[in-house]
Fold this protein.
Amino acid sequence: MNSSDNGVEMRYFRLIRYLVLCGVFFLAACAGLTTPTLETSEYFKTLSNGFVGTMQKSGVLYHYGITIMALKKLSPDNYVEVTFENPDGASPYLVNCNVSDMKALDFIKNAQTYRLDSPVVHGVSPHTNYLVRVSLYGDSSKSRLLGIHEQLVNSGYIEN
């Protein structure tokens, strides 16, 4: 092997190293565009999440939410406090109710599945994760916290 072959190999090695570094930087830049992992906690598993736009005469109204499945049998007397991060940066939205009052879905046989939606939100930034926190209590006195489930929801390309 002569010295000109070593020079070609070194340039090839530098090119490969440059392309790998560019790929790493590209993936790091796109990391904010990925969908958050569907979370599982002691009591719940997230089945889906996302933003929904509803067309109105005044424009598009957005809200976001999650679909969860109970991993343990819930009592109708169990109480939930759902906190939705407010994209405006103001106080979070709170939804409180008994499990029996939650929006039940029946698309999985013999499973307790629920859809939890925020009120209409404003100030949504594109490609931003917003937190939904579900606190499950023994009853409406909220004296016994059974568990907490947290899920991030990405806004995708939505901006309002």
Remarks:
- The mean pLDDT is 87.
